[in-house]
Amino acid sequence: MATLLFRLNNVAEDEAEDVRQLLDEKGFAFYETQAGFFGLGVAAIWLVNDEQFPIAKATLDEYQTKRAIEQRQHYENLRANGEIPGFFQSILQHPLRFIGVLLLIAFVLSLMLIPFWKTLHP
Description:
The chain is mostly helical. It folds into 2 domains: 78 residues, Alpha-Beta Plaits (2-Layer Sandwich), CATH 3.30.70; 34 residues. Helix content is 61%, strand content 11%. It contains 4 helices and 3 strands, in the order βαββααα. A 3-stranded antiparallel β-sheet has the order 1-3-2, covered by helices on one side. Helix 1 packs antiparallel against helix 2. The chain starts with a strand and ends with a helix.
């Protein structure tokens, strides 16, 4: 019976391709399912042979640990070079969106506080 090895929900395509390539290189028999048109299915990579699951899982865990370190280093390099905007830089890049979010927050808070305001100030 097939065993779920790796879910593909919200996984970058390069990572999914790396996982497929890694499983091919190690000789694991697997197949892939898609979520389908409405997203009701399971987008995942399934291992065909249950007996290979512990080895495949260990291999995948090792890959993910290595990838996490590489991605963190890549992020830190981008951040050090100033290519990732900070909070205030993001506000300056999209001031109308920021003002709109503030107005929406104020509107929701006012709707929430109206009942309390009426009880305190009859």
